[in-house]
Structure formats: C-alpha cells, structure tokens
Task: structure prediction
Amino acid sequence: MIVESQTGVKKKPFNLLKWIKSGKGQRVLVIITFMIIPLTLLFLFTYFPFVEMFKFSFYKMKYIGDRQYVGMKNYVDVFRRDDCFKALWLSLYYIGAAFIQLSVALYFASILSTRMRGGNFFKGFIFFPYLICGIAVGFIFKFFYTRGFVLDTVLSWIGFDLNHLPYWLKDTSINNFSLAATSIWRYLGQNMVLFIGAIMSVDSSMYEAAAIDGASGFSKFRYITLPNIKKILVLNIILSITGSLSAFEPPYVITGGEFGTGTYFVIMNKIAHTSQKVGLASAMAIVLFGIIVLATVLQKVIMNKLFGKDDEFEEAKMIRKQRKLFKKQQKGAAL
Result:
C-alpha cells in the first residue's frame, strides 16, 4: 500500500523485516548488540544506585530497620552541622595543593617533552608514586611525619632544633598542609604524563615558524603550547578539583580524621558507617555531587573566557545552523 503525504510525495509503508535486512538496519542492530551489555551494567551499578541514594536522602534511616520520611531535613542538617558542611572548607587546602601540583607538573612536562639526557629516567621517577596504592602512600607519610622520624631527622641534619619543630600531624596550624603535600607527591606524575602527551602532539612546524620570527621560549609557551594543550589543561584542572573535593585516603589513613583533619569524605564515612545515619550521608553525597557539577561548569566557562571556545564546538554550531536554515528553506519551497 502506498501512502500519499501532505506534500504530494508518495511513501511506502514501513516494513520491519526489510529494514532489518537493509544496511542501515544492520548497522543499528550491531550498535545495539555491542552497547546493550555495557549500558545495562552501567545502569545497574551506577545510575540505579545513584537514584536509590537520592531517594535515601529524604529519609531518616539505618541500613536495617524502618524508614521515616523527613523531607529536606537531611539537606538542612548538612549545612547546619559543624561536622558536615564546614568539613568541606578543608578541601581548600587540597585545591590549593592541586594548583601547585598542576603548575609544577606543567613545568616538568615542558622540560621533559624535549630531548634531554636522562629524560625517561626522570619521567619514570616522577610518575612512580602514582603507581603506589593510596593506603600504602598514607602509611609511608604517617611514618615520614611522625615525631622524631624521617622529616624531623632530615631537618635536624641541616641545623633545625627538634624541640622547636611542630608536630606535623597534630598541630592544627600545619597538619592539613602536611596532608595536602602528600597529594602533590602522589599525583604530580599523572598530571605530568598527560601534559607531556599533549605538548608532544603540538605541530613542531609552529615552533619552527616562531623561532624564525624570533619568539622567546616564554612566548612560544604562551601563544603556541598553552592554547594547544587547553583541553588537557582543563581536564587536569577538573580532575584535580574534583579529587580535592573528595579527598579521603590521606586524612583517613594518616590521622584517622583527628586533630581537625577530617575532610568531607571522612566525615561522611563516619556518619554512614559508624553512626549509621544513611539518610544524612546520602544527602551529603548529593550536595557534594552538586558542588562538583557547579565547579566543573564554572571551570569550563572560565577556561572558555581565557582561551576562547573550541574550534570543533564552533564548527558543530555552524553545521547545526546550516541544517536549520536548510530545513526552513525546504519547508518554504514545499509551501
């Protein structure tokens, strides 16, 4: 049976069997076949637990027992309790450390991306801490900072009096700096490797042209390297900021969250597993998720202001505009 459309064009009825045998149908079936298992696993182990956690955040509940619906009370408690939202301010120590870490990683990447003697050794040496388990890193620095151990011994060798040195893990004026420094040591290599890969993908002819024009090393970095590694720079900043907001292993292993070092994740762990206030802990997780999304959007906006939007983004935007214009012209011609 042939159906005549409003524009006068005759359309054949849809035949499912014929569509499946067609090239387009085969491509769609192959895509569905390959995607259905990972998408099912993603839904079962990521999105479904997240939806359940969001539902828990509106209840006063433990892992076992009755639930009591409390509405937004858990979210209000997150912002009112001293041990919840205020713990998030400790993330500022780790965010500050993240920017130091990115700056140092970019500096080393700029040097080690060139051909130099022993470059591979230094890359491996700097990247090695990232391969160590976070728990092991915690134990290493627990003994490193303990009174009379590694750091105090080294400082005494260069003339510092042990009696005048602070307690690196107990002194509340310095212990969070000590813990944030462990993150720099561990993640510096990861950022450096990503930067090296991005720098080495920049077209070398651009550097040659800049050298002919007499550009200095800093000018090459400012106007060639930095704009061309923008995507990796943004990625590293996003990963570092989100990692800083969810810092857990250093304070949990080294100090157990004591002496004012309990970060948001450490407090959330205590509330969820020690106090068994599952609803409140779920609300804390949702609030943190919102903060991370907001921070990611702000970073994207700021980076677009500093470096401009991606060429691919502008190209895709132009293609969408052309398609809309083409459809309007087609409709106008049909009328």
User: Anything to note?
Assistant: The two ends are 26 Å apart (CA to CA). The chain has 15 helices and four strands.
